[in-house]
Amino acid sequence: MTDFTLHPQLAKDTVFVTKLKLCRVLLITDATYPWLVLVPERKDIREIHQLDDDDQQNLMREITRVAECLEALVGADKMNVAALGNMVPQLHVHIIARFEGDPAWPGPVWGAVPATPYEPHQLDATVSSIRDALEHG
C-alpha cells in the first residue's frame, strides 16, 4: 500500500529481509538471537483484530511460514511469537528463535542483555540465508 509507513523505531532496529503477501519481514539487528519481525503493510493498524478477515488469515499463515523457516534454518529449541506493541504502537509480530542456554533462557529476551550488533558480513549472510529460505524454500 502506498500510504504505509514503517514506524521509525522499527526502521532503526531492523533491516529489510523480504516482502510477503501481507507483511514486510525484518531482522532485528541484535545478533544475540535470531529475531525476525513481521509488519503488516496496512496503515494505522495497532491490533490483529483491526485487520480484516483476509488479512488476519494471511498474517497467521505468514507467522507460521516464517517461524517454521527460521526454526529449520537455525535449529531452535523453541520459537517465541509475540505481538506486544507496548513501545511501538504499529502492529508488528516478533518471531524469535530461542535456545536452551541462550542469555535470556528461559525468560523473555527484552532487556536480558545488551544488544550485540551484527558484524557487516554476518548481517549480510544472515539476511541472505533467511531471504533465500523464505523465497525459495
Q: What structural keywords apply?
A:
HIT family, subunit A; five-stranded antiparallel beta sheet; 137 residues; 5 strands; globular
What does this structure look like?
Residues 3-105 form the HIT domain. It comes from Kordiimonas lipolytica. This is HIT domain-containing protein. Pfam families: HIT. With 137 residues, the chain is an alpha+beta fold. It has one domain (8-121): HIT-like (HIT family, subunit A). 33% of the residues lie in helices and 21% in strands. The chain has three helices and five strands, in the order αβββαββα. It has helices spanning 8-13, 53-74, 120-136, and strands spanning 14-19, 23-28, 35-40, 78-82, 93-98. A five-stranded antiparallel sheet has the order 1-2-3-5-4. A hairpin with a 3-residue loop joins strand 1 and strand 2. Helix 2 (53-74) packs across helix 3 (120-136). The longest helix has 22 residues, at 53-74.
The mean pLDDT is 96
Query: How large, in whole angstroms, is the Cα Rg?
Result: 14 Å
**First and last CA, distance:** 26 Å
Task: Describe the main β-sheet briefly.
Answer: 5 strands, antiparallel
Helix percent reads 25-40%
Counted up, domains total 1
**What would CATH call the class?**
Alpha Beta
Q: List unreliable stretches of 5+ residues.
A: none
Oligomer: single chain
Which strand order spans the largest sheet, edge to edge or round the barrel? 1-2-3-5-4
H and E order: HEEEHEEH
- The CATH topology comes to HIT family, subunit A
Q: Which CATH architecture?
A: 2-Layer Sandwich
Categorize the overall geometry.
globular
CATH superfamily: HIT-like
